[in-house]
Design goal:
This protein is α+β, with helices and mostly antiparallel strands and 306 residues long. It folds into two domains: 121 residues, 2-Layer Sandwich (D-amino Acid Aminotransferase, Chain A, domain 1), CATH 3.30.470.10; 154 residues, D-amino Acid Aminotransferase, Chain A, domain 2, CATH 3.20.10. It has seven helices and 16 strands. A hairpin with a 2-residue loop joins strand 10 and strand 11. Helix 2 crosses helix 3. Bound molecules: 4'-deoxy-4'-aminopyridoxal-5'-phosphate (PMP). 4'-deoxy-4'-aminopyridoxal-5'-phosphate binds next to helix 5 and strand 13. The site of 4'-deoxy-4'-aminopyridoxal-5'-phosphate has 14 residues, from helix 5 and strand 13.
């Protein structure tokens, strides 16, 4: 772990990171009976301010995920927002960070059932720049792994166990020499990236797979759909065929980690002319300006830390 991570919220209080440890017998560790959230906070150097992005939406999604996995904690969303702000203040970060919240079955207990297994929450924040370490754009493949289905492990619930599926598709893409993967649903339609949503531009319109395609209903995806509307770019949320990826003028990923990242080729076929396209560029610029608090109409998405 990055040595700049000095503190964590663990077992009800802020403690030094080195003390935030769970037993190997913890239910959430043994059976992946946990859910998580990842939230970004952007540093604005001019204002010497840090903004947490869409914290209320992330916490709302977290409580929805918890409901499915029968996880319960004693904190409200408002209390958790205060805890997150406190943790960030304590760290005195002056760079972009990624906040990781895990809600987990904390009992030390054998047996996979979820009833009568107490839960807890832990939080830490780590400096986080570009998920793809400065790459201008990505070369991706369509994975031969399929997306885990809603009736197996629902993707919309950000369940830790489901990330074995993400890890397999990502790892095999990297082994094969690609930066990232796009996974299909069992039905063969496009779902998403390993930990990001996917957007296509076709005839100038923005298209993204719908919520019923075994995707995580991404908060960045929602922000991009709103921004596109505001820029008078037409949007379609619908089923997407694999071959549309090869016919798209532009393709990009969205996610808290990935932010807005252009895809330059799929399965060795260039996307459009193989360069960053104008629609992606525009949305990317809007997104980063929004994160730094430079667009008044999106300021309500931001929680200042300092
Ligand atoms: N899909 C998956 C599987 C993810 O893990 C993520 C990252 N949270 C996303 C999509 C993007 O979601 P968001 O924009 O809310 O980070």
């Amino acid at each position: 772990m990055d040595s700049r991570v000095k503190y964590a919220f663990f077992e009800g209080k802020i403690v030094p990171m080195a003390e935030a440890k769970v037993s190997i017998a913890t239910h959430g560790f043994m059976y992946a009976t946990s859910i998580f959230e990842g939230i970004r906070a952007y540093w604005n150097a001019e204002q010497k301010q840090m903004y947490v992005l869409r914290m209320a939406d992330h916490l709302e999604r977290m409580f929805d995920s918890m409901k499915v996995m029968l996880l319960e904690i004693k904190y409200s969303a408002a209390q958790l927002s205060d805890i997150i702000v406190d943790l960030l203040k304590r760290q005195e970060f002056d760079v972009d960070v990624y906040i990781r919240i895990t809600v987990y079955k904390s009992a030390k207990k054998i047996g996979v059932g979820l009833q009568n297994v107490p839960s807890d929450i832990c939080i830490f924040a780590v400096p986080f720049d570009d998920y793809y370490e400065g790459k201008e754009g990505l070369h991706v493949c369509v994975s031969n792994w399929r997306r885990v289905e809603d009736n197996a492990i629902p993707a919309r619930c950000k369940i830790v166990g489901a990330y074995a599926n993400s890890a397999l598709s990502k790892a095999d893409a990297v082994t094969a020499g690609f930066d990232e993967s796009i996974v299909l649903s069992e039905s063969g339609s496009v779902s998403e990236g390993s930990a990001m949503n996917v957007f296509l531009v076709r005839k100038g319109e923005l298209i993204t797979p719908s919520g019923t395609e075994n995707i995580l209903e991404g908060i960045t995806r929602a922000s991009i759909l709103t921004m596109a509307d505001d820029l008078n770019i037409k949007t379609q949320v619908r089923e997407v065929d694999r071959s549309e990826l090869y016919r798209a003028e532009e393709l990009f990923f969205t996610g808290t980690g990935a932010q807005v990242k252009s895809i330059l080729s799929v399965d060795k076929r260039p996307v459009g002319n193989g360069q960053l396209g104008p629609v992606t560029k525009k949305l990317m610029e809007q997104y980063y300006a929004m994160g730094e608090g430079k667009i008044a109409k999106y300021k309500h998405w931001l929680t200042p830390v300092y």
